[in-house]
Amino acid sequence: MLRTDAFQARFETALAEIAAVVGPEHVVHASDEVEKRARDIIPRAYEPVAFVYPGSQADVVALVKLANRFDLPLWPVSKGKNWGYGGATPARQGALVMVLERLDRIVTVDSEMAYAVVEPGVTFRQLHRHLEDQRIPLWLDCTDGPADGSVMGNSLERGVGETDYGDHFGNICGLEVVLPDGLVARTGGGPFEGYKSWNTYKWGVGPYLEGLFSQGNYGIVTKMGVWLMPKPEYFLSCVFELHREEDFTALIDAMRRLQLGGAIKSKVHIVNDVVTFAVVAESKDILGGEKSLSDARRADLRKQFNIAPWSFAAGLYGTRAQVQANVAVIRRELGPLGKLQFIDDRKVDLIKTMTKALRKGAAFGPTRVVAERFSRRALGKPLAFLEMIPHVHAIEKGYPSDYFVKHAYYKSRRPKPADDDIDPGRDQCGLIWLGPMVPLNGREMTRVLDLVRPLYKKYSLDFTAALIIGNPRTVIALMSVFYDKQDADETRRAEELYFEMGEVTQRAGYQQYRTSTIYMDRILAPAPEFLELCNRIKRALDPRGILAPGKYGIDATPRAPEN
Amino acid sequence: MLRTDAFQARFETALAEIAAVVGPEHVVHASDEVEKRARDIIPRAYEPVAFVYPGSQADVVALVKLANRFDLPLWPVSKGKNWGYGGATPARQGALVMVLERLDRIVTVDSEMAYAVVEPGVTFRQLHRHLEDQRIPLWLDCTDGPADGSVMGNSLERGVGETDYGDHFGNICGLEVVLPDGLVARTGGGPFEGYKSWNTYKWGVGPYLEGLFSQGNYGIVTKMGVWLMPKPEYFLSCVFELHREEDFTALIDAMRRLQLGGAIKSKVHIVNDVVTFAVVAESKDILGGEKSLSDARRADLRKQFNIAPWSFAAGLYGTRAQVQANVAVIRRELGPLGKLQFIDDRKVDLIKTMTKALRKGAAFGPTRVVAERFSRRALGKPLAFLEMIPHVHAIEKGYPSDYFVKHAYYKSRRPKPADDDIDPGRDQCGLIWLGPMVPLNGREMTRVLDLVRPLYKKYSLDFTAALIIGNPRTVIALMSVFYDKQDADETRRAEELYFEMGEVTQRAGYQQYRTSTIYMDRILAPAPEFLELCNRIKRALDPRGILAPGKYGIDATPRAPEN
């Protein structure tokens, strides 16, 4: 965007009017403060001009009207914690970021019908606490991302969680939306108030339009229904470790059968060794002073930590008999391929007690070695790995925490902060994600890994993948590009790897399930007719293009070149 | 639409051009032929001006371009078997009905990933036969409607089937669409060809737009992916009969728990006594010469036929242990409320053999009485009821048939035709459906029944309901209005009951899940902001309003008054 004087004057008038709407304390445009709030962990990002924090739906309506008058591009985010995809940054230079975190009411929880209605600022932690505090026997589904992330933001960006309710977009029902001209509508085709099935029947009547507001730029959602899981009678978590890399294809095919047959319905993340290293160990202990892992060191670390090439956790929910029937199918399918463990609440308590005692002992110099040795010899795993188990168990029950976010520090030069002080943006971690969608079948999945593995080698970065089962027929092959943000060359290589990996997989037919703000202009390039359809709708609903221009490449007018 | 001479001349030119595109043999405009093809079973309908049968996607593209040139409203249908909702008739007088039944290829069946890609003309019967003939171990989900109905048509109208895959819109994935200006696009945001997850990942990337083409008028779908169920290792059907009307609320609440907990995932239809009477008996035997059922006669018939006030069938799929674990939960929840029967393939064969033998005996005059008596005494049910069991069992396995369509003949003056000759349109049956969405909870469901029951009484028509569990939180309370189409007064009363029942339930907050062509102008009235959003999109995608004007009340321009 060209910063002419005329622009500057207009922008300042707009800011003054915005301050009059939301209160001056809720507008931030000092450049250092803007920079701090815009920090994400991707290699580069577009810069916002200011941050604004509306306090109500009425504020949001006023802001879009104002944006239309001033031709001011708004970039709405719920909490702005979209780490690894661009955080709170826009898809084009110069947008004004509208953070909706002050709209943070839990509007309804219907414990009988098992859903909640939330505003954009409601976080996983907040909703979870509310259910606990009110003793409502419902479990939410959270992600392994930040506990202070927005339930709505993640759902609309089509994030995937952990449990049977992990398809977050699939489990939302009923949206209230501020359209780009300020009209407030609800989806579902029923009356605005008193529509009995607004939050129970996803498709409503008439065209199903909620999809427009997911990965789109057609409106600002201010209320959202989300389905919750009734607390099951019985629960087990299941941990699997693949013995031999050669059985990877067989594992993927077994997972498809388990998912299609319903024995595992939770949104399994099959992670490779580096993901596990990055969660349980400090960077220096993994890399040993090098910039990346050699094959030999990687193999050595696997042995040293006793970590499998691929492993996953799953949650099993139901009556005891239902869960046991599923356990039997899982044993039949996966038993021959690796190590299976089923963990109940009692067992988790035991692990917690034991690891706490060992950790206490380890605090005293020489005992550390003894404790670690005991853990490895008697229990087969390093202490840090055992300490991970209760977190795995908890997340399958919908307990949000920042525990798993720690792995963003893999290439960071500073040691990991305490579990309650994780902030990859503040700490300038380096991580960007690329998630191609792959049919859940061993042949296809192997093909995609064969495409990306050599690229990681080419750029001297460590191949890191979490294969997230998005539905019984699809795996989201989430590739992490970890890099050292303080190393300019590595940052450049990370970006190159990211884009090349995106192009290579797209060209082979594996489109991404979601993308970062710096990929959005390319993401729909393979689908020009689809993009044309999106743009036609954009022109109809937002003719001045004030709402999130460039989101997923969608624009009201052909894009002006950037400066 | 005013039929001026100018209109007539333009229309004739258009028809000649259409004939040049599709071949004259695929254009029907003789009024008697048009009338015959437009016949549905609802009390009145809008009249099409002609029928056209394109033979390819290219024909469809040519036709929409032509329609734009001639300002000719097109009303696309797949097979036109949308019985009880308007069949092949449009939502406005004078549209040209485009029947897509010549596009009838099964494009793909992927037996590993468990999906098919079909064109609009592919029927449930055709897809089922294909799977059987090719010995593909996949089961489809069909409806209890016509076997020659379109898989695509039913899915896009958001029909609900029978099995765990019964949410038909929820189980489609990947559409190819002709937009109103002739642009051909695919949903999902991937490349047109070679997009690996097109038919496996429902949400694709970018805004999720498939919902636009469901109960909408934004495009003509020419290809559709549909997920199929891998043949399970074990299958049981389950039949439940409620003992006491007083336990109805408890039944509905139990069903919610069973659905939320996953013990029953199939799309259960809880039907009242009249539905069962209408399936198993001839009209004259039910009504006994009267125009409608008195309470006393109704009670007497229940006793005579030994039919419960409410009953349902469900399908249970999985390994034997998974099914048995679900059976245990079902017994616990429903055992106290009524009679439960679990039926496997062996038991069904036995029933078939026995009923066939009894029926054979019954052919000989006096033996009929003996056979019927044996059936009732020894087996507890009339012979016709026992004969229904194998059909119930089969439909839960995805066997399409017209068996259940027979109940449309309830008020017909002619006896039911043979099972392979059912045609309610041809036979001038009278039936219109109204399906309010109700949260799946006993209190709400009872409230809705309390609203509609007195209305049936008011219009002297028989209260008939199938409560279809659309998802674990919602029941579609499908009210049937049966009437005698040869009785003008009763036809008028049927229409009045239909509209009053619609208004009363809408006003109470129970919007319909789908509606008939004669209700479409009213259906979105309670949601003016939503309708405005729909209309804005309509203007963008179809500025001349040539595609299905008035579908779900959506129009490019404010509606001209009708003549």
How would you describe this protein?
The structure is a homodimer of 563-residue chains. Chain A has 563 residues and is of the alpha+beta class. Chain A has helices at residues 5-22, 31-38, 57-70, 124-133, 151-156, 248-260, 273-280, 283-287, 295-305, 320-334, 345-362, 365-379, 383-395, 442-458, 488-507, 520-523, 528-541; strands spanning 27-28, 50-52, 74-77, 96-99, 106-110, 115-118, 138-139, 172-178, 184-186, 220-227, 229-230, 234-242, 269-272, 310-318, 338-343, 431-434, 437-439, 464-471, 474-482. In chain A, the strands form four sheets. In chain A, strands 12, 13, 14, 15, 16, 17, 18 and 19 form an eight-stranded antiparallel sheet that branches. Chain A has a five-stranded antiparallel sheet with strand order 5-6-10-8-9. In chain A, β8 and β9 form a beta hairpin. The first copy, chain A, is globular and about 70 Å long.
Give the helix level of chain A as a range of percent: 25-40%
- What shape does the CA trace of chain A take? globular
Computed CA radius of gyration of chain A, to the nearest angstrom: 24 Å
Q: How many helices of chain A does DSSP assign? A: 17
Approximately how much beta-strand content do the residues of chain A carry?
A: 15-25%
Tell me how many strands of chain A there are: 19
Largest protein interface, residues of each chain: A-B, 96 and 96 residues
Oligomer: homodimer
Using the coordinates above, name the CATH class of the domain at 235-409 in chain A. Answer: Alpha Beta
Mean pLDDT of chain A: 94
CATH topology annotation of the domain at 235-409 in chain A: Vanillyl-alcohol Oxidase, Chain A, domain 3
CATH superfamily of the domain at 235-409 in chain A: FAD-linked oxidases, C-terminal domain
The class by helix and strand makeup of chain A works out as alpha+beta
What is the terminal separation of chain A in angstroms? 6 Å
- Characterize the largest beta sheet of chain A: strand count, sense, and whether it forms a barrel: 8 strands, antiparallel
Low-pLDDT stretches of chain A are none
